[in-house]
Structure prediction request, 252 residues.
Amino acid sequence: MDRKAVDPEYEAATETSRRFSKPTPSSALQELYGSEFSGESIKTESGELAGFWFEQGFSIGDRDYHVIFGKAQKIDLVTGAPLDSHVQGVKVGAATYRLDSDGWRAIGMQTGIGEIGSWGEAPDIKQAEILALSPKRIAFMLDFGYGMGGYFDDGKVLFGFDGATWVDLGFVQTGGNNAGACDDEPLPSGITIPCWSYTGVISVLSDIYHGYPDLLVARTGTQSGDEQHPIKPAEDAVYRFDGDKYADTGSD
Prediction:
């Protein structure tokens, strides 16, 4: 069989292109969970069902990074289907790469950063909003919310990254409402439940605790008050890192 000669310069260019191409989700998740894909999911050693969540590139200082997130669902041991109760989220994993002079290099494989979601699924994320916590630390802010009894809370789950490791920084509430439990018209009993609703924006403050800055949540709208004033203007909140996660200082 005739063999076609391959230009050495072409081979070198192909190898360079391969090294500088971002890793694919399937190859990243196989490395992350240590198993080959079967369809769209991987069965992990711990008996969970893992799959692709989302991927995103970002920079810290002058270094470029790329992360591919996986989501691992707990499954029913009888049916093999993912558990889907309203309190059941997914466990988040991350395959993280950094662009060096010789291409993209894996710098971290973490299968248990934290949890997010409900009904056995993660929220649909295309691109996360990035918050710069310091020159060397960032946080992905992921939209998440939940409700109970007609009351709803919205906010951001924060996954922080320091150039090497991802950590779960907790939930920062930005918005809320009682849309499912209010009525500005009097009920048959004569009681009126006023409606309130607020939204908020997160920014970084200068105070530092345990290496992380305080976060200001500037809120607009209304929130519940007391008997004399059932609703009142929404109040800003400050979240502080307590060594584990961010918590509202107003709830101390």
User: Anything to note?
Assistant: The CA atoms of residues 80 and 91 lie 17 Å apart. Helices lie at 8-19, 25-33.
